Every structure is written in structure tokens, then in C-alpha cells.
From TrEMBL, chain A:
This is pantothenate kinase. It is found in: Cytoplasm. Its EC number is 2.7.1.33. The keyword Transferase applies. One of its GO terms (biological process) is coenzyme A biosynthetic process. Keywords: ATP-binding, Coenzyme A biosynthesis, Cytoplasm, Kinase, Nucleotide-binding, Phosphoprotein, Transferase. The gene is PANK1.
UniProtKB/TrEMBL annotation, chain B:
The lineage of its organism: Eukaryota, Metazoa, Chordata, Craniata, Vertebrata. It is found in: Cytoplasm. Homodimer. Interacts with PKM. Its cofactor is Mn(2+); Ni(2+). Gene3D superfamilies: 3.30.420.40, 3.30.420.510, AF1104-like, Uncharacterised protein PF01937, DUF89, domain 3. It comes from Rhinolophus ferrumequinum (Greater horseshoe bat). Activity is strongly promoted by Co(2+), Ni(2+), Mg(2+) and Mn(2+). Activity is inhibited by EDTA. The keyword Transmembrane does not apply. This is 4'-phosphopantetheine phosphatase. InterPro entries: ARMT-1-like_metal-bd_sf, ARMT1-like_metal-bd, At2g17340_3_helix_bundle, ATPase_NBD, PanK_long, Type_II_PanK. Residues 454-759 form the Damage-control phosphatase ARMT1-like metal-binding domain.
């Protein structure tokens, strides 16, 4: 069921894995049960078809709108899992009906519905009423297939997306961008956003208009609106953004149309042009905004337009500056719809409206994550696969990054590691459930590192971790038993107690900050690995996809995870990784923009 | 890895004080006879186990040799009593801080007189560290035992032998501990041992267990990270620090990410999205308390989550938690319980153990004692010699805490015979012997504790009077008084100290304390006298009954049973009457009885039943000596026998108050048989069988009965159970549901209880139950 695409784009990393040999926590001592995965992997017939009627996406969207927001089902688990204080049990209020997302598993699985294709699997949910999956938002361009999916024709999403082809036109006007001060602090991605109540925009009538002035009168607005047609009736006006506002980082994807005709360019409003130029000609914005140039998806066709997809991030703490800038630059005059997901879409909604006169289109973060991931995987990474794994994960010498073909990805366990961690079991593109999550995530790594070492950024923390040795900090099995603990088949090098050596003063006095950073990284990573592995066993899934910005520039964690999955499952589980780590939510949000427009 | 390396939990002294003065007699009891040792040395506490024998005085009854009628006439009493020494086996466990280890070893060496032991079983992380010291001091060879194996063995042992060993922790209830009745089959279960790391072990049978997983994030992580993040370097102090913190200052909560929207989304805003998520900044200082709290939540949640995942994977719902991270700390029991509830959505219960700290030592001991087959016996917790569970909550009884922090004891008596469930219990797994839970019912607790306090002087007097020839009886009686008084005070403060507090446990504790000071049977003389007097009336009573017509006789028999039951020295109201008016007679007692309809009156139904076919076999639990058993029970037994019903008469194995003991019942039956042909032939033909219950309690626990009794009950297809007396039918078993018909009858000889039940003093309970078909 899984095909390995070999000969990937040689991005093999040096295998300097550190922990691979011994990082395993004392915890995970368990043998995976060979799962019986057979049937699960054939995805469901239901949605393999590429062509979804134009109307479908609209339906999907409307329902998402009506049914709203997401968090209903996942409720408490959402981000935190754990409980805050022991003080209160999570109130498991059912969300108001209007907000209920039907694809979410309501608490505890009691309401889950089995689908015919997978009822052999336990507990997944089907997106009931939402007839058409969200990804079908792209579907209606099916008539002009153009680019075939790099790896799999079979992949519906890919096929559909690939089908899209160029329409031109779009009006831009200037957004005198003096972008926000971005902080340059890498860090962990969002916690996990939430779902939206869709607000439909007023109708968009194509009618190119001359550039508007900075401050528009109602009349201008009206003209503008017409102008915004991007060449097709139900195509959203530029600019096209998708945003994922997480607990730590804001992820922004921006589609830069490269097929702008001269005529179109002339019509492009100043505001719009300036946004485009600013975003595409810089790689850093303000103090903390960063464009991940290496991730840029080139020559992509989205919603009938050809262009490049840019990936930008900045800390959530800069959100107010960003909104302020939106206001100053009169972003609202563009009448674009800002599709946003992540908790911040809710938290900052009011600010967007009050300060910048922008109405956010809020989207469920898990929906976006999955749709974004499937989409990016389907279009590939500029000709190379998006997905990869590590060959020989248990052998530091031979461990190598290899491309992986995620043609038929189901079922998969998706572990999204942002500030916190969410774990989803995905059975088809619109049938998934949130299995669990943990509050020990990227935010914990960075938070503890800051407290322990005085560092300030994710990059700094990782750099220290790369130089440190966690075995000075952790108590290993051999520290206790003098060697392997044979009674239970534990290697002496396994970690018995994370930070266990720090119980003793002498040891505390003898370690370096780098050691502490490394131990923190190893502890958090192994713990996520351990929980993911247990979930995979419980859900009977053998593919575990790790995503989220915790993995950004974090080879140590990736190799540890690859090692842990392989070693503790005796080769039964495969750890998969994705190039665009933390950006899928934002991509998913952008995809919603297209669907939304289709609806109208 | 359990406990290894964990040092300092509760350790107070840094200095290694060798000259510490121990109150050794009270701590290392019976050391002279100790014959087998085991030691479990953890990071901060040492647990020593030894097997010893205890010499007890026991009152033995012996029939006079009546060769002729004359001989019988000579004796006032029906039998003679002699006090003999009996040796019983006992397991001693002592827990103390590692600081005292050398002093303790010295003490043991000096007092170990005649042991042939050459080896000491050792387990725990410290076993390595202290090996040489032990070998040098005790001249014993240290035999190291696997930590996990010992833990599991110990765990199985306490779960099997100590009723209400396990409890759940409920933070807002008073008290916080909810004890569980032991499931008849303790397997399978999950043991999550949170030492410096976490071990998760699945236990399937006595000998089969499997390490199914673990985590490196455990107590050592809390301690190690806590020591790095705060200025506090000790485990207990870190916990204390954490209990004062606000984790929301450090953790990123759902509401921090979603803003106010979490409410409309149905999210609980206070859930932690990212532990320490707010501390990723250089421009803010965080309080030590807040960081400690956040750390505690992070670790507890993580362990709870993994435990739930493993429990689900292995389809287990009983999960016991132990290890130094838990060990009696309300803070961690609370966070772990919360986490388990959250992640399992209530499907898994977090269970804790009263003697969790002793598991390793018990297991190591059992490993070394395998040739003695300790698992073949039943054992009972000796309340007199055990410290009980101490709340480490700082505001509860500081004196107790201090003591428990230093030396803590557990003693287990080896019971003569194995104990099992009564096969007739409807649902052994849900059977709860006790009617009122005094841990729960504060009002009742207050009353009964006072009641036992007030009765204490009378018990002391009776104890002294029972040993007129003894020089030190008064002194021992005072010691008994002090001991039991202290127990009662402890229970006032910590009603959960020995599991669920009940009238039964109060009575049993008193019996254990009396035994401890060699008052094995303070009522032996009283019982002897009463039996003698009652036997003299037997024939008259039986003749009177025989003159009645059938229906009158049935009522008279029941009234006789009830009237007999008024003769109970255990009840305060009655003991006063008996002391002041020894002539108080059987007939008077009948007159004292409440008129029908009784408080609980199923007599008509019973009468109807008697008109039907006879029962196959009746099991009768007798109560008091004298009038009760002789003039109440035996005529009733005789009637049943005449109907063709076989009778098993079950009496206590050991003495408790004036309850008739098995050995007394044998003599009484013999004497009655001599007077009565019905009883005589029934005994001879084994239609009347006398058995022992295996208990020495004034109450009755149907889940711990002598195996012989259980076998007999099954063999004879018993279809009627008669339980007599307040202790057995009201304080316990009032709600017990059986497979067969049952008769529970008692006279309420306590006005408080009578009032509570809606009656008055000497109200009658006559409860006849037929199981639903």
C-alpha cells in the first residue's frame, strides 16, 4: 500500500543523529503489535474521484459555515489535553449547534458514525452532512487539467489541483506596506487553531476598476469590489492569503500571481501591487517576520492562476502590530477575504474588525491542517516529493533521508507539533478524529529552555541542544543497574529518568547549558514519540506523519522520532515527515478562500 | 527503576545521626524470635521486613472428664478453662528514614538472639549502596532481589490479604480516601510505579507479569527539573511549593490562544495547551511556586495519559499507582487522579494502596520465604501493631505526621487457616460487609468513637477481673487502655487510617489491642458461668416449647432467639443490666422485647415458609455464649433438625467479647446432646455440624470465612443462612445479598442506633429474605 519513491531530490542530511542510539526513554518499552492494517489502507472509494462538481465545494463551505466551528468535538482535548489544574474538569459543553462541525468527533466517540468503507476501523468519524470535502474547493477547475500531480495521478486532490489552469486577470491596488515589525524568532508553531463560522462576503462582481485611493468612499469601495475579479466569476479577488495564528507563531501563505498580464498590471491597484512587491522582494519583514524562501512553491496553479506560493512566519506576539499595519495600510479597501485558522483567528477576530476593519473568515484548524497537508503533498515540492522518511533510522551511520510517496495516505496518524501537540487519526480526507494531544510540545521545549539556559529563541535553543549531551542530565538505565536491565530487556543506554541526574547537587553543578537544552529537546521529543506510538497501536495505524513547526530546523527531533518509532515497534511503525512542516494550516486556510468564492 | 536513586523524599536530617535513641521495643517488636529478614532500601526510606513468632496467652476450654454423674454435680461450670501459651506467626514491617539505617542495624544485631538466618533478601536502589554495611553489621549475606518482581509480589500479597487495601482519591470529599472492596480475583491489573522514572507493568497471575512500558518522565524529572528551576532542592519541599503555585502564569492555556472564544466553541479555556508555553520569554520572571506547579501538572498529566493509553491497549481498568512520587502525597494523588479521569473519560480508575510503601519489602521477604509457602496462608492486618495510613496533609495532626515520618509499622498475623468467600454471596465483587461507613458518616463516627471511649474503662475492668491471679494484669490493662485510646484518637483525626472506619473495625481493633497485652479472652469466666447456668435451664425450656402447638412454637422459638440475643456483654446497655442484676433472666428478656409488629418484621412470611417443605441445610452464625446460644439457638436448631433440615452451626474461631467460640460450642453441644436425643442423634449422624468461622471478630465478614466452612456449605447445598446478633446482622451484613434464603435477626441494644433505624432500645430486627428468582 505504500510506495516508496526512490531517488528523491537528494536532500539527504548528514546523519549526525545523536540520540538515535539511546534516546529512547525508559518509557517506551513495548513491542508494537503488528497491526492488521490491510483494509484500512485502501482509502475509501468514496472520494477517490477527482472531479467534484462545481457546486460541491460550495456546499461544503456553506456547511462548514453553518456548522461552524470546529472545536466542538474536540473540545477539551484540543490543545491541551491536560488539564490545567487539577482544579477543574474540562467542561464538556457541547458547542452551540451552529458551531458544531460535523466531522468532528464529539466527545469520547460516543457519536461516531461508521462509514461503510471503514467500519472495520474503530472510531472514526465521518463528515456527515458535509457532502463535499473541503478540498474540493479546488475541484471545479477540473476542466483544464494541466499539470499532473508529480507523483500520483490517483490522488484526487492532486489531480484536481493539477487540473487548474490559468486564468489571468486580477486587479491589485496598493497597500503601502510598511509591514509590521516582525520578530525574528523562530519557534514552534501554533497550538492548533479552530474552526470558523463562515461569513459570506457580499457578492463579488467582476468589474475592473481604477486604482482606488487610500481612503475610500463607499463609492470607491463599490468600484473596487467590481474590479477585484480575478478573471473568473467565482474566483476571489487578490490578494490571496491564508493565515494560521497559533499560540506561538503566525503562519502566513501568500500566493503571488506570476501570470499577470500587462493590462492586468496596469489595473492593479497600488495597494495590491505594493503588497506583492513588498512580500516577494524581501525575505525578512520587520524584526521578526521571516519568509522561508526555501519552501516557496514555484509555478503553482491555484484557482486557475499561475504563480508562486510564499511561506511567511512571525511570532504571535506581533499580531497586534500586524493588525495595526493592516489598518494603516488600509488593507480593508482591497475587500479581500482574510481566511484564518488557529486559535488566534478567534482571539484576534475582534481586533481585526475594530482596528483594521477586516472581517476574518475563521476556519477550523484541524480541517485546514489536513486539507493543507493533502494539497501540498499532492502538488509536490517543486518537482520533489513533499514527504520523506529516514532509512535505517536505528543506525546512525546509515540513517538517511529518503523521499516517500504518500499517494494513498490512509489511514495515517498525524501528529501536529506546535506549541502543544494534537494527534489525529485520518481515514480519508474528510474523515478523521482527534485522538488525543499533549501539552508537552514545542512551547514546552522553548519555555523550559528559556528558563533553564536563558536563551531567547527557538534557533538559539536548538543550536545549544545540538552541542549538548543529554546523558549528563538524564539518569540512564545503566546509571541505576550498572548495565542493561535484563529482566525487562532494557538497554543500559535507555533513559530511565529524564533530568533524573539533576536530583543530585554534584551533577547539577557539573552540566552545561547545552546539556540542559539537549535533555529538554530529547525529553519532549521522546515523550511525543511515545504517545504517538501508543496512539498508533490503539488505533491500529502504522504510518505516523509528524508535522508542525517544532520540527523546523530540528534534525535531532526528527531522527529521534524516526528511531523511536522504528525501534520500539520493531520496525512496524514508520515515521514520516513533511517539508513544509508547520504551514499546512495556513495553506488549508487559503484553500478555503477558493472554496468560499466558489460558493457564490 | 522504580525507586532507584530517589533520595530524600521525606528525608529531614542531613546529618547521619548514629546516636539517635530509638524506642526499640515498640519498633522492632519480637525481634528475639525473628527468623527471616528482608530489606528494601529506597532513596530515602528503608523498609525492613522480618518474620517472627509471637507468644500469646490463649484461653483453652476443656470438658471435664465426667466419668460419673457425681463428677458432674461437683462442678458449677460445664467445663474448665486453662490459659496456655500459643505461638503464632507474624510478619513485621518497619519503615524508617535511611538516616537511621546504621543505628537500626546495630540495634538489630544486638537483639537478634537465636536466629539461624544466614541471608537477608534485599531490594531497592539502595540495596547496592548499603550492601557492605548490612553484611558487616548483621553478618548476613545480602541476596539481591529484582525490584519489580518484589513490588509485584508485594502488591499481590496486600491485595489478597488486606481488605480495603486499595482506595481512590477524591479531592473534595471528606475524607479524601475512598476504600475499595477487594475484588475476589485481583488479576489482571496494571501497576504504574512512579519512581524516578515510570514503569508500567501488567500483572496477570501470581507469577506472570510483563513490563509493558514506561516513561522517563517521572518523579526524578519533577525533582531534577524542580531543583534546576527553583531554589528548592528537596522533593517534599518542591511538592509543597507546587501546592501553592498558579500554573496558569507559566502554562499557555487554551484561552490564551483562543481568547474569549473558547466558550462559544465549547472549549474549556483552562486546559493547558502548552506546558511552560508562557515562559518562552526573556523579559519576565516567574515565581518558583508557579513553575513548580506547572511542572507538577505537566508530569502528572503525562503519566496519566500514558497510563490510560496502556490501559486501553491492554483492556485493563484497574490501575494501581505507586512509587515515591505518589507515596501518600495528596498533591500528586490528586493530579494523577485528575489526569486519569480526564484522559480515560472516567473509564479507568486511579487506585492507590494503603501499604504501597511496603510492597518491595513484602515482596523481597516473600521471595526469601518461598519454602514456607506464605502464599498458602491467609494473613490479617494487625491493627494494634500497625501504624495505619497517615495523611501527609500538613494541617492534619502534626504529631502523627512526625511520627510517621520517622517510623512506621505494619504487622500481619498469619491466620490459622485460609479464608475465602462464602459461596452463597450473590456478588462477591460488590459485597460490602459493613452497613455504615463511618469514614463517610461523620455523625455516626462521632457517636461510635465516643461510645467506644466511654466503654473503655469497663473493658479495662473486665480485663483485669478476668485474670485475678496475675500480678501484672492491672499494668497490662492500663497499657491496653492507653493503646486503644490512642488508636481511637488517631481515628478521630484520620478515620481512614485502617481503611474504611466501621463499627466492625473499631471492635476488631479493640480485640487486637487486648490480645497484644495478653488479655486473650476477658470474658472466658463470664461465658463459662453463663453457659453453665443456661445449660441447666435447657431442658425446661425445650419441654415448655414442646407443649406448644406448632404455630405458637414457631413464634416462641424466634422470640427465644431474640431474647437470647439480649444477653450481650458487648452492648453497653446490656452489660450495665447484667452487672447490676445478674439474675436478669431469660423470661425477663422476653418481656423486654418489643411487641410485634417489630421494627423490621418479616415473621409472617417466615411462618408461611415454614409451612412449606423443609430446607435442605441451614447455616447458622451464632452470637453470644450462654442464654443466647443454649436457650435461643439450640432449640431453634433442634426444631430445624426435626423438620429434616441439616444444620451447620458456625462459631468464631477465636474469642471476641462474650461470643461463643468454636471450642466452647463443641462442649455446649456435647452437653446438650447428653440431655437431648434430637441433638444427640443429629450430631452422631452428622446432620448437625459444628464449624469455625475463621474469625475472631464480634462482626462477620462473609468474604473472609474459613475454607472448611465454605466447602461444607457447598457440599450440603445450603439453602438457608441465619445470621444472629447486632454485630453480625446489623453492623454488618444487614444489606448482604445471598443466593439463598436468609434470616437476619437481632435486638438493637443501643438506643442511638435504634433511634437511627427508627426504633427504640430493644427494638427487634427480623429480616427474612428470599432471593429473586
Amino acid at each position: 500500500m505504500l510506495k516508496l519513491v526512490s531517488g528523491g531530490s537528494g536532500q539527504d542530511w548528514a546523519c549526525s543523529v545523536a540520540e538515535a542510539g539511546l534516546g529512547s526513554e525508559g518509557a517506551a518499552f513495548e513491542v508494537a503489535r503488528p497491526g492488521d492494517l490491510g483494509e484500512a489502507s485502501c482509502g475509501g472509494p468514496g472520494w477517490g474521484c477527482a472531479g467534484i462538481p462545481d457546486s460541491a465545494p460550495a456546499v461544503g463551505m456553506l456547511q462548514a459555515g453553518a456548522a461552524g466551528s470546529a472545536c466542538g468535538g474536540q473540545d477539551a482535548e484540543e490543545l491541551g489535553e491536560p488539564v490545567g489544574g487539577a482544579e477543574e474538569r474540562p467542561a464538556r459543553l457541547p458547542p452551540p449547534p451552529a458551531l458544531r462541525l460535523l466531522n468532528r468527533k464529539p466527545q469520547g466517540g460516543s457519536e461516531e458514525i461508521k462509514t461503510s468503507e471503514n467500519d472495520s476501523q474503530r472510531g472514526r468519524l465521518r463528515r456527515g452532512p458535509r457532502a463535499a470535502p473541503p478540498a474540493s474547493g479546488m475541484g471545479d477547475y477540473g476542466r483544464q487539467p494541466e499539470r499532473s500531480a508529480p507523483h500520483t495521478p490517483g490522488d484526487p486532490t492532486g489531480a484536481r489541483a493539477a487540473a487548474v489552469n490559468g486564468l489571468l486577470h486580477n486587479g491589485f491596488h496598493q497597500l503601502p506596506v510598511q509591514q509590521p515589525r516582525f520578530f525574528n524568532r523562530g519557534s514552534v508553531g501554533s497550538g492548533d487553531p479552530a474552526p470558523p463560522r463562515l461569513l459570506l462576503q457580499p457578492e463579488l462582481q467582476p468589474q475592473p476598476q481604477p486604482p482606488p485611493a487610500q481612503h475610500d468612499s463607499p463609492a470607491k469601495k463599490c468600484r473596487l469590489r467590481r474590479r477585484m475579479d480575478s478573471g473568473k466569476k467565482n474566483r476571489p479577488p487578490f490578494p490571496w492569503f491564508g493565515m494560521d495564528i497559533g499560540g506561538t507563531l503566525v503562519k502566513l501563505v501568500y500566493f503571488e500571481p506570476k501570470d499577470i498580464t500587462a493590462e492586468e498590471e496596469q489595473e492593479e491597484v497600488e495597494n495590491l501591487k505594493s503588497i506583492r512587491k513588498y512580500l516577494t522582494s524581501n525575505i525578512a519583514y520587520g524584526k521578526t517576520g521571516i519568509r522561508d524562501v526555501h519552501l516557496e512553491l514555484k509555478n503553482l496553479t491555484m484557482c486557475g492562476r499561475k504563480g508562486n506560493l510564499h511561506f511567511i512566519r512571525f511570532p504571535s506576539s506581533a499580531m497586534h502590530t500586524f493588525i495595526q499595519m493592516g489598518s494603516e495600510k488600509n488593507f480593508s479597501s482591497l475587500h479581500t477575504t482574510l481566511c484564518a485558522t488557529g486559535g488566534g483567528a478567534f482571539k484576534f477576530e475582534e481586533d481585526f474588525r475594530m482596528i483594521a476593519n477586516l472581517q476574518l473568515h475563521k476556519l477550523d484548524e484541524l480541517d485546514c491542517l489536513i486539507q493543507g497537508l493533502l494539497y501540498v503533498d499532492s502538488v509536490g515540492f517543486n518537482g520533489n516529493p513533499e514527504c520523506y522518511y529516514f532509512e535505517n533510522p536505528t543506525n546512525p551511520e546509515l540513517c538517511q533521508k529518503k523521499p516517500y510517496c504518500l499517494d494513498n495516505p490512509y489511514p495515517m496518524l498525524l501528529v501536529n507539533m506546535g506549541s502543544g501537540v494534537s494527534i489525529l487519526a485520518v481515514y480519508s480526507k474528510d474523515n478523521y478524529k482527534r485522538v488525543t494531544g499533549t501539552s508537552l510540545g514545542g512551547g514546552t521545549f522553548l519555555g523550559l529552555c528559556c528558563l533553564l539556559t536563558g536563551c531567547e529563541t527557538f534557533e538559539e535553543a536548538l543550536e545549544m541542544a545540538a552541542k549538548g549531551d543529554s546523558t549528563n542530565v538524564d539518569k540512564l538505565v545503566k546509571d541505576i543497574y550498572g548495565g542493561d536491565y535484563e529482566r525487562f530487556g532494557l538497554q543500559g543506554s535507555a533513559v530511565a529518568s529524564s533530568f533524573g541526574n539533576m536530583m543530585s547537587k554534584e551533577k547539577r553543578d557539573s552540566i552545561s547549558k547545552e546539556d540542559l537544552a539537549r535533555a529538554t529537546l530529547v525529553t519532549i521529543t521522546n515523550n511525543i514519540g511515545s504517545i504517538a506510538r501508543m496512539c498508533a497501536l490503539n488505533e491500529n495505524i502504522d504510518r505516523v506523519v509528524f508535522a508542525g513547526n517544532f520540527l523546523r530546523i530540528n534534525m535531532v527531533s526528527m531522527k529521534l522520532l524516526a528511531y523511536a518509532m522504528d525501534f520500539w515497534s520493531k520496525g512496524q511503525l514508520k515515521a514520516l515527515f513533511l517539508e513544509h512542516e508547520g504551514y499546512f494550516g495556513a495553506v488549508g486556510a487559503l484553500l478555503e478562500l477558493f472554496k468560499m468564492t466558489d460558493d457564490q | 527503576m522504580a525507586e532507584c536513586g530517589a533520595s530524600g523524599s521525606g528525608s529531614s536530617g542531613d546529618s547521619f545521626d548514629k546516636s539517635i535513641t530509638l524506642p526499640p521495643d515498640e519498633i522492632f517488636r519480637n525481634l528475639e524470635n525473628a527468623k527471616r529478614f528482608a530489606i528494601d532500601i529506597g532513596g530515602s526510606l528503608t523498609k525492613l521486613a522480618y518474620y517472627s513468632t509471637v507468644q500469646h496467652k490463649v484461653a483453652k476450654v476443656r470438658s471435664f472428664d465426667h466419668s460419673g454423674k457425681d463428677a458432674e454435680q461437683d462442678h458449677e461450670s460445664p467445663y474448665e478453662i486453662s490459659v496456655q501459651e500459643e505461638v503464632t506467626a507474624r510478619l513485621h514491617f518497619v519503615k524508617f528514614e535511611n538516616t537511621y539505617i546504621e543505628a537500626c542495624l546495630d540495634f538489630i544485631k544486638d537483639h537478634l538472639v537465636n536466629t539461624e538466618t544466614k541471608v537477608i533478601q534485599a531490594t531497592g536502589g539502595g540495596a547496592y549502596k548499603f550492601k557492605d554495611l548490612i553484611e558487616e553489621k548483621l553478618q548476613l549475606k545480602v541476596d539481591k532481589e529484582d525490584v519489580m518482581t518484589c513490588l509485584i509480589k508485594g502488591c499481590n500479597f496486600v491485595l489478597k490479604n488486606i481488605p480495603q487495601e486499595a482506595f481512590v482519591y477524591q479531592k473534595d470529599s471528606d475524607p479524601e480516601f475512598r476504600f475499595q472492596t477487594n475484588h475476589p480475583n485481583i488479576f489482571p491489573y496494571l501497576l504504574v510505579n512512579i519512581g524516578s522514572g515510570v514503569s508500567i507493568v501488567k500483572v496477570e497471575t501470581e507469577d506472570r507479569f510483563e513490563w509493558i512500558g514506561g516513561s522517563s518522565i517521572g518523579g526524578g524529572t519533577f525533582w531534577g527539573l524542580g531543583a534546576l528551576l527553583t531554589k528548592t532542592k528537596k522533593f517534599d519541599e518542591l511538592l509543597h511549593l507546587a501546592s501553592r503555585g498558579q500554573h496558569a502564569n507559566v502554562d499557555m492555556l487554551v484561552q490564551d490562544i483562543y481568547g474569549g472564544a473558547h466558550q462559544t466553541l465549547g472549549l474549556s479555556g483552562s486546559l493547558i495547551a502548552s506546558s511552560f508555553g508562557k515562559s518562552a520569554t526573556a523579559d519576565q520572571e516567574f515565581s518558583q511556586e508557579d513553575m513548580a506547579k506547572s511542572l507538577l501538572h505537566m508530569i502528572s498529566n503525562d503519566i496519566g495519559q500514558l497510563a490510560c493509553l496502556y490501559a486501553r491497549l491492554h483492556h485493563l481498568d484497574r490501575v494501581y499507582f505507586g512509587g515515591f512520587f505518589i507515596r501518600g502525597h495528596p498533591v500528586t494523588m490528586r493530579t494523577i487522579t485528575y489526569s486519569i479521569n480526564f484522559f480515560s473519560k472516567g473509564e479507568v480508575q486511579a487506585l492507590f494502596l494503603r501499604h504501597e510503601g511496603y510492597l518491595g519489602a513484602i515482596g523481597a521477604f516473600l521471595k526469601g520465604a518461598e519454602q514456607d509457602n506464605p502464599n498458602q496462608y491467609s494473613w490479617g492486618e494487625n491493627y494494634a501493631g500497625s501504624s495505619g495510613l497517615m495523611s501527609s496533609s500538613p494541617d492534619v495532626c502534626p504529631a502523627q505526621r512526625t511520627r510517621s515520618g520517622t517510623f512506621d509499622l505494619l504487622e500481619m498475623d498469619r491466620l490459622e487457616r485460609p479464608l475465602v468467600n462464602l459461596p452463597l454471596l450473590l456478588d462477591p465483587s460488590s459485597y460490602v460487609p459493613d452497613t455504615v461507613d463511618l469514614t463517610d458518616d461523620a455523625l455516626a463516627r462521632k457517636y461510635w468513637l465516643s461510645c467506644f471511649e466511654e466503654a473503655l474503662d469497663g473493658v479495662v475492668k473486665r480485663a483485669v477481673a478476668s485474670q485475678p491471679g496475675s500480678v501484672d494484669a492491672a499494668e497490662r490493662a492500663q497499657k491496653f487502655r492507653q493503646k486503644y485510646w490512642n488508636k481511637l484518637q488517631t481515628l478521630r483525626q484520620q478515620p481512614f487510617a485502617y481503611g474504611t472506619l466501621t463499627v466492625r473495625s473499631l471492635l476488631d481493633t479493640r480485640e487486637h489491642c487486648l490480645n497484644e497485652f495478653n488479655f486473650p479472652d476477658p470474658y472466658s469466666k463470664v461465658k463459662q458461668k453463663e453457659n453453665g447456668a443456661a445449660l441447666k435451664c435447657f431442658q425446661k425450656v425445650v419441654c415448655a416449647l414442646d407443649t406448644l402447638d406448632w404455630e405458637e412454637r414457631q413464634l416462641a422459638l424466634v422470640q427465644g432467639l431474640l431474647a437470647g440475643n439480649v444477653f450481650d456483654w458487648g452492648a453497653k446497655a446490656v452489660s450495665e443490666v447484667l452487672e447490676s442484676d445478674p439474675q436478669f433472666g431469660f423470661e425477663e428478656a422476653k418481656r423486654k422485647l418489643e411487641e410485634r409488629p417489630w421494627l423490621v418484621d418479616c415473621y409472617n412470611k417466615w411462618l408461611q415458609r415454614l409451612k412449606g417443605p423443609p430446607h435442605k441445610c441451614a447455616l447458622i452464625f451464632a452470637d453470644n455464649s450462654g442464654v443466647d446460644v443454649i436457650l435461643g439457638v439450640f432449640p431453634f436448631v433442634r426444631e430445624l433438625l426435626s423438620r429434616g433440615t441439616e444444620v451447620i452451626l458456625a462459631c468464631n474461631s477465636g474469642p471476641a467479647l462474650n461470643d461463643v467460640t468454636y471450642s466452647e460450642s463443641l462442649i455446649v453441644a456435647e452437653r446438650i446432646a447428653a440431655m437431648d436425643p434430637v441433638v444427640h442423634s443429629a450430631l452422631r449422624e452428622e446432620r448437625l455440624l459444628l464449624v469455625q468461622t475463621g474469625s475472631s471478630s464480634p462482626c462477620l465478614d462473609l468474604s473472609r470465612l474459613d475454607k472448611g466452612l465454605a466447602v461444607l456449605v457447598r457440599e450440603r447445598s445450603t439453602d438457608l443462612v441465619v445470621i444472629e446478633g447486632m454485630g453480625r446482622a446489623v453492623h454488618t451484613n444487614y444489606y448482604a445479598a445471598l443466593h439463598c434464603e436468609s434470616l437476619k435477626l437481632a435486638v438493637i441494644k443501643n438506643s442511638w442506633l435504634a433511634e437511627r433505624l427508627g426504633g427504640r432500645l430493644f427494638s427487634v430486627i427480623f429480616k427474612y429474605e428470599v432471593p429473586a428468582q
